[in-house]
Write a structure and sequence with these properties.
By secondary structure, the protein is α+β, with helices and mostly antiparallel strands. Helix content is 31%, strand content 34%. The strands form 3 sheets. The chain has a 4-stranded antiparallel β-sheet with strand order 3-1-9-10, covered by helices on one side. The protein has a 4-stranded antiparallel β-sheet with strand order 2-7-6-5, with helices on one face. Strands 4-8 form a two-stranded antiparallel ribbon. The chain is globular.
């Protein structure tokens, strides 16, 4: 199975982004916009693993997060990834608790003998991906950023393990494990 570890967007911000994303579909067809139900912040991309390997990682992260408190996430700004820009995302900057939790998950993955990849952690929530052979101008990216709704900080209450199935219409995610964080 293809899997990753993430935290979800809260419902209030998800609702704000749902309306915004519907408008973006009409205004920016060069972008394949994410479905609101799919919005999340990836802590660690696990990749293709056996169910037993994901279970071992879940157990290790569960043990390591005992006593870990909930934390607030503060959305920052629209950013792009790639050169040329292929991914539009909501950035979170360097938020210590988010970085701590991502590092904890990555360390647990290493301890379980799973690949952690070479890329450093970059906290972001993918909003959309530019379609093949399409581009966005700087003016279009600026307009997209200017129209982003006023998202609020939210409290992360759990760590999610998700299975990702690649389908013709885009990836489909399903929660397979939840680790609640303490109050």
């Amino acid at each position: 199975m293809r899997a990753f570890v993430a935290v979800d967007l809260d419902e209030a911000n998800r609702q704000l982004l749902q309306s915004w994303l519907q408008e973006r579909v009409k205004r920016n067809p060069a972008v394949r916009w994410e479905k609101p139900a799919q919005l999340h912040v990836t802590l660690h991309f696990v990749g293709d693993v056996k169910k037993s390997e994901l279970q071992a990682l879940y157990t290790r992260v569960s043990e390591s997060t005992v006593g870990q408190n909930r934390f607030d996430l503060f959305p920052r700004d629209v950013q792009t990834l790639g050169n040329p820009a292929r991914v539009l995302c909501l950035g979170f900057g360097l938020q210590p608790r988010l970085l701590e939790v991502a590092d904890l998950v990555r360390t647990c993955s290493e301890e379980c003998g799973l690949s952690t990849g070479a890329k450093p952690f970059f906290a972001h929530l993918t909003l959309g991906r530019v379609r093949d052979k399409q581009t966005l101008t700087g003016a279009e990216i600026t307009e997209i950023a200017a129209t982003l709704p006023d998202l609020q900080a939210w409290t992360v209450q759990e760590i999610l393990f998700k299975e990702s199935s690649l389908l013709p219409g885009g990836a489909q995610h399903r929660v397979v494990h939840r680790i609640p964080l303490d109050d």
